Amino acid sequence: MGTRLAGRRILCGVTGSIAAYKVGDWVRDLRRDGAEVTVVMTGAATRFVAPLTFAALSGRRVYTGMFDPEDAEKIPHISLAREHDLILVAPATANTIARLANGLGDDLLATVILASRAKVLVCPAMNSQMFSHPATQANLARLREFGYQVLAPATGKLACGEEGPGRLPEWDAVREAVLAVFSPQDLAGQRLLVTAGPTREPLDPVRFLSNPSTGRMGYALARTARRRGAEVVLVSGPVDLAPPPGVELIRVNTAREMHEAVLAEYDQVSVVMKTAAVSDFRPRTAAVHKIKKTAADRSLTLVRNPDILQELGNRRQGATRPVLVGFAAESRNLQAEGRRKIRDKQLDLIVVNDITAPDAGFATETNRVLILDRAGGEEALPLLAKEEVSDRIWDRVVVLLGCNS
After folding, report:
1. 319 closest CA partner among 225, 400, 229
2. How far is Cα 4 from Cα 236, in angstroms, rounded to an integer?
3. What are the respective helix, strand and coil percentages of the chain, to the nearest 5?
4. DSSP per residue over 40-93, as a string?
5. How distant is the alpha carbon of residue 370 from its chain centre?
6. Rounded-to-integer distance, Cα 359 and Cα 386, Å
7. 123 catalytic residue (yes or no)
8. What's the CA gap between 115 and 98, in Å, rounded?
9. Which of 20, 109, 220, 380 is the most exposed place for a label (fewest CB within 10 A)?
């Protein structure tokens, strides 16, 4: 079981939509992240999914009515309001949204929300015409005025057969919103640039030079920075990963394309996090047509690609912005190589990992890294999930941003 939400108590309010069946998986995943989840269902919701389903998935009693005689002395709408750190309303129907916008207290969920001071996340799900109706839009605007966070519904084919906005938001985006509630917003107001993944240098139309980078570390850094309030630009080489919710994604293939994209953003960011595994060399020429086995040369002439991080360090000319963070994948002499790169490339931090370790580096969900700083400090992190490593790195960057402000 995960620990990102350990000790957090989340109330999940399920209302009467066919999308209610999807929320069962959400409850299970929240528990995997360590949260305690209590489910409150409206009467209409119980027509779509049995309370027993949510009881099994949450491991807790499911509340369905204002006047349930069980535990009546605890005044459930007050005790539930006080006991939870977050209220997640999903799916939120047009009827429930209208009820909340007008402060009604005619069912248990609405009354709990009225009595609570917890953060409220609302996940609309309904027919597209209902969602776009001025009344619904006015009600959603009212909820935002109350301080509730309203997640944008997904767009696609609906249960009624229509297509358009109104699908329950995707779980990845909802999970990020939940985690952001419990994350420090210490990167709010910062625009950050993260590079990730490999680059590909073409030999001919079907072959290229590259490396095993999967982009997981860079994507984890982009995801956790966004979670902590930052505006994030992710420049990514070709990877098989979905972009983190709320992150601006710029896709590139070659080192020169990444060089161009990074320089275009450089003057607008306060941090450059350079995790991409950029090819140091490219073929001098790329064949227009596929090279045949019988005609292929036995030698390949390579030329250097631009050293992006070196150029950024040179451009900074002793200034403190943007903060420059490099990554180094090494097979030996980790500390010495890291120190050399900090000095030569004028970095603030470098994160070094041992690519010979089977449980760290490329194509793994975990990493074990050594963080070195310009002042001579170092921190060796134990084996951690890449998101946890990312948060530890951002902790260091936050200090640098604060010290240099």
Report:
1. 400
2. 26
3. 35, 25, 40
4. EE-TTGGGTS-HHHHHHHHTSPPB--TT-STTGGG-HHHHHHHH-SEEEEEEE-
5. 23
6. 11
7. no
8. 17
9. 380
Count the alpha carbons within 13 Å of 73 in the hemisphere toward its beta carbon.
0
| Number of Cβ within a 10 Å radius of residue 372 | 25
Strand partners, 274: 195, 326
Q: 124 - beta bridge partners? A: 92
Give me the percent of the chain exceeding a pLDDT of 70. Answer: 96
Cα separation, 251 vs 246, in Å, equals 15
What pLDDT, in 10s, does the model give residues 3-49? 789 999 999 999 999 999 999 999 999 999 999 999 999 999 999 99
Q: Which of 12, 123, 160, 403 is catalytic?
A: 160
What is the bridge-based pairing of β-strands 349-354 and 323-330?
Answer: parallel
Amino acid at 243: P
Domains belonging to the chain, first-starting first, are 9-181 (3.40.50.1950), 191-403 (3.40.50.10300)
Interior/surface letters 234-261, b for 16+ CB within 10 angstroms, e for the rest = bbbbebeeebbbbbeebebbbbbbbbeb
The Cα–Cα gap between 267 and 138 comes to 39
Per-residue pLDDT tens over the stretch 64-95: 987 776 765 566 778 899 999 999 999 999 99
Cα distance between residue 120 and residue 143, in whole Å: 9
Q: Which two tokens stand for residue 71?
A: 């535990």
Cβ contact 192:233 at 8 Å:
yes
Statement: residue 1 has pLDDT above 70: no
In 10 A of CB 97, how many CB atoms? 26
pTM of the model: 0.90
pLDDT in tens, 236-267: 999 999 999 999 999 999 999 999 999 999 99
Quick check: 87 and 121 in contact, CB under 8 A? yes
- CB burial of 156-167 (b: ≥16 within 10 Å; e: otherwise) equals eebeeeeeebbb
The tokens of 72 are what? 């009546």
